[in-house]
Amino acid sequence: MRQLCRQTPDFSHRRTKWILCRDNRTMPQSNVHCLLNMNNNNNEEKEGKEEEEKKEKEEKEKEAKEKEAKEKEEKEKEAKEKEAKEKEAKEKEAKEKPKEVFIINPAGNLYYNWLFIITLPVMYNWTMIIARACFEELQHNFIVYWFFLDYISDLVYVADMFVRTRTGYLEQGLLVKDEKRLRDGYVSSFQFRLDVISIVPTDILYLYFGLDYPEIRVNKLLRIGRMMEFFTRTETKTNYPNIFRIGNLIMYILIIIHWNACFYFSFSKSIGFGADEWVYPALDDPEEPAFGEPMRKYSFSLYWSTLTLTTIGETPPPALDSEFLFHVVDFLVGVLIFATIVGNIATMISNMNAAQAQFQSRIDNIKHYMQARKVSKDLELRVIKWFDYLWNNGKAQDEKEVLRYLPDKLKAEIAIQVHMDTLKKVRIFADCEAGLLIELVLKLRPQVFSPGDYICKKGDIGREMYIIKDGKLAVVADDGVTQFVVLGSGSYFGEISILNIKGSKAGNRRTAKHPQRRLLGPLLPLQG
How would you describe this protein's topology in the membrane (predicted)? Predict the structure, then answer.
């Protein structure tokens, strides 16, 4: 029997020889045992290897899980740190960002109304402190009322300081709303120092000097700037600035006269009542008991002060050197007051008549021109009547001249408010967009015609469109008598659709006899 023998491979450091017999049915037992032993060893080695691989795999999975958990933990930590940094950055930004609070617009009504409120205690202090200090009965008889008004005015003064920290101002055209900037700007200003002095509680000096010395509150007079600011803004807002200026000037003069009257009475008291003819009469004069009454004291002093400061009338001559000096100072103040009155009133009257003087100069120039050119009396009379109509109806102002200093945007807004209602009455513009109407409004020019004037005649080349704002307009025949139709406010003519229709009765247009006639035109150049 043929046998094939092969050497076995080396399994784990042991070299085993085995014989494979193809055709050996009766293999020796030793050989079988050798083969089984070799297979068992292979299985054990394979199982050991699988266990090692399994352990390695478990270790790798464990390491992967630990690594994943560690990475997850690091990511969470990074996310928390990032969130904390973002929160800190937001807090820092919010801290550094200018804080916007409720502020008062200095150009608004709220600020103007507050100026009126603060003006009341300022006026009270400027008139009553000096009066209470010089006229003792006034202080004694109404002491409770004075204390009430004093402390109310003090509270308003304190509130005014808070209002100043909330009053914005314009910077490069923008209203500043930063609380810190507003507060720092006010605190660093000179006005803040005056305001602080004005609220110093000097009333505690009453405990030392007594209640007969209201002049210890003289620091309250430092708020006069608020009163002057109110008057300035009122002059700007009012429609009658000249009248307001006159009233304001009179008020200042009365305050000066009031203070001078108080000084006169106090000066007379220091010299002695009735010591001579110049000072205030004696209070205990049986022939004139009225001079001891509080009202007579003030009225007599006010009368003397008015005579002295206005240099009108005569007063008793001084007797003492101090009286002469007081009188000289009063005369000097009176001269300044008189010059101020005359100068301001002359300026105000000149301003009030400036428009009339300019209009009259224009009429005079037209008259001279017509006389030089030999214009007929009839035409000259019509021209003068036209000027009279302009002046009597308040239409003598040249809109271009009045509005030339305004920017285009404000001019447009004024034109829209003045002419938009008239333009909306025109049917052909009823469905137009707002932008087109604004463009049309800017092209309108006011024109005024006298009664009987022809605006256009049949056969004229139509280059302009007219819109009637006030008055009536008649469409007449060639004879000038027959009327086809009378046009009123909101009517229009001169548009292409009418002028180009053949056979239309677009005849002569003439102003009808109506007290008010005004056309808005030309509107647009027409292609005639």
Answer: Multi-pass membrane protein
